[in-house]
Write a structure and sequence with these properties.
The protein has helices at 4-7, 15-27, 32-41, 48-66, 114-126, 144-153, 171-184, 193-210, 220-230, and strands at 76-86, 89-97, 103-109, 135-138, 162-165. With 235 residues, the protein is of the alpha/beta class. Pfam families: DDE_Tnp_IS240 (PF13610).
Length: 235
């Protein structure tokens, strides 16, 4: 992992300012131009393209740095996809939460098919904060059962894993999508798949922090302090 000095090297602005603007953009329903105005009120002239570059760079870094601190999720997976617009076309954001609403994992995909579903479950199962699922609750997407069956055949999932397609039990993940959609709505779609992926990593990471999934962030203030701390920033 890069040190603070490597990460913020050659940046024109202080590291705390960079992380502040990135955090605001990923956590609240704000456009880049909203943040430009807010920073101008603080006496700082920062262009919206600069803030955009910071988000693309540091959004994934937040996701990477909080992973070791994530508390364990439970073994009841609630899985669903939502739509994200990229270059004027709808792409698929695979997401899973546990029965308490804690984020298990997420993955942006060009396609909504068996291979994408399998990739998503493989990613979720590889994350140290997740347990092997006892039960997986799905929507009616027909790609899921064959993907799960392949993972059972490959002994990635135990054959005892219960799979159920029950819409009302998946309300918890559909409700959780709303937060992500609320943040992405002012963005008016992404220009490239890569920038969508980079930004969504940061949005999902901030959402996990706000849900209390990371250690040492029991209040809003301590969450901010904790994030600065894991980036090596002393304010």
């Amino acid at each position: 992992m890069e040190t603070k000095s490597d990460l913020f090297k050659w940046k024109h602005y202080e590291s705390a300012i960079i992380l502040l603007t990135v955090r605001w953009y990923l956590k609240y329903s704000l456009s880049y131009r909203d943040i430009v105005e807010m920073m101008r009120e603080r006496g700082l002239e920062i262009s919206h393209t600069t803030i955009m570059r910071w988000v693309h760079e540091f959004g994934p870094e937040i996701d990477k740095r909080i992973r070791p601190y994530l508390r364990p999720t439970n073994d009841s997976y609630r899985t669903d996809e939502t739509y994200i617009k990229v270059k004027g076309q709808w792409k698929y954001l695979y997401r899973a939460v546990d029965s308490m609403g804690k984020t298990i994992d997420f993955m942006l995909s060009e396609n909504r098919d068996m291979l994408a579903a399998k990739r998503f479950f493989t990613k979720a199962l590889a994350s140290p904060h997740n347990q092997t699922p006892r039960v997986i609750t799905l929507d009616k997407n027909p790609a899921y059962p064959p993907a799960i069956q392949e993972l059972v055949n490959e002994k990635v999932l135990p054959k005892e894993t219960l799979v159920r397609q029950t819409k009302y039990l998946n309300n918890i993940v559909e409700q959780d999508h709303r937060f992500i959609k609320k943040i992405t709505k002012p963005m008016l779609g992404f220009k490239t798949f890569h920038t969508a992926e980079q930004t969504l990593k940061g949005i999902e990471a901030m959402h996990m922090i706000s849900k209390g999934q990371a250690e040492n962030n029991s209040s809003v203030l301590s969450a901010v302090e904790w994030l600065n701390k894991i980036f090596g920033i002393v304010v």
